[in-house]
Each structure stands twice: as structure tokens, then as C-alpha cells.
Specification:
This protein has about 100 residues and is of the alpha+beta class. The protein is about 30% helix and about 30% strand. It contains 2 helices and 5 strands; from the N terminus they run βαββββα. A hairpin with an 8-residue loop joins strand 3 and strand 4. The longest helix is centred in the C-terminal third of the chain and has 19 residues.
Amino acid sequence: MNRISAHQCNLNIWHDLPDEMWRKVADIYKAMPGWIGYHNGIPYWFGQEKDDVYIEASVELSGLSFYAQMTKSDWDSWIERFKSEATQVLGFDVGEPEDGFV
């Protein structure tokens, strides 16, 4: 079944990275499918909280955190693409700390 559900992910893109790296992350945001821009400093893709489908990101002590409402297959595809793009652009393996990425 392909229904909309909630998804969450923390990545090993830490809050204390240099500004130069965060500028690169911002460029990755803009290149990702569904990019609609920032609202009150929060990046969004596809929509916002009032919409059925959206992705948002925030920088937390635990890393770069994503929250999404969309189908699992769309989410899996989108976040894997983000990890791949970030790995290439940032120069280190980007993934979830609980999967061993530090």
C-alpha cells in the first residue's frame, strides 16, 4: 500500500560544521526535488505542515534532522538521493549515526 505516513531521519551533518560546509548544504537543499524554499528559516520541499506532503529540515545537536509526510517509497528515494548528493559535495560519507556514520 502506498499511503502517506510520517518519516524522520537524523544525519551525521553536525551543527558545528564550518559555515563553508553549511553553504554547501544549502546548495544541496536547493538542488533536491521538490525544493520550495525557506519559511521562517526552515527549509521545505513539496509543501509545508499544512499540506499532505512535505519535507522539512532542522539543525539539531543530534545532526541534520529531517521530518517528512509522504509515501514510504517517495521518502526512501528522496533521502537516499540527499545522502548521495551530500556525500559527494561534502567529501565524507553522509548517513545516520545509528547506522555507524559519524
